[in-house]
Amino acid sequence: MTTSSAYSSKVYMGVASLLLLLNAKQIYDLRYAGDHVDVTQHATEMREAYQMNMPLQDFVDELKRLKESSYIDLHVVPVFVWPVLLFMQMTKAVRKRLPQWVHELLGTAFLITSAVMLLGVALMFFTGESMYGENDFQWDPLGQPAKFFTFTSASIVFGAWWLVCGVQLWRFASPTTRRLHAAWVRRFVATGLGTGTMRILYIGYCQTFHSMREGGTPLEEEENNMLTGYTMWAGFFLNIVVNELFMPLTQEANKKSL
Asked: Is 177 helix (H, G, I), strand (E, B) or coil?
């Protein structure tokens, strides 16, 4: 990997990680802040504070979903630690200064943190907790793409791939298979940061759709769900494709491991 591409990847990781942290902070505020006030009042204050492009009643319903969720903390709370572990594992200068056993310990913590995040999503799905577009999901990607490429379907597909990557990087975590381990780590990180790319795309799409609407009216719930689903799929897909195409280490590992 060239110096410029390595630098670009670090910049991207920083931006994507920051967006993940901001989103986690936003969810935390929505879930726990304002417990002393009426839900509608809290929704009004948060909608103005975060400049949400969503009708008030839809936002009230979303806020109630967050407050009543039993498993969303499992998915969100680890996000505050995940980027720190990511940079400690992916930054060569840091790795060189740490003993091997510390690197392995941090790597284990990184995998456990990721597993808890994935478990939270899985529990929300299997227990029927509401997710974007879940109730309207249909297996018809060509006829009704807005009903197929949803937040839920992206979470299932790319969550499963993230699990595969995690198992593979753990499997090859030995001195004799170091290059394969590094390749699967890059796949794992690229997939994990897909939600960061999704936030970048979502912000751009929302601003575009909002400006195109007459009078700049808020996005309806169906429109918001559609954009969330499309950007979720696009974020993960872009990260995985870019990783496979532009990282020679990963390309070389493909010939040996796949």
From this structure: helix
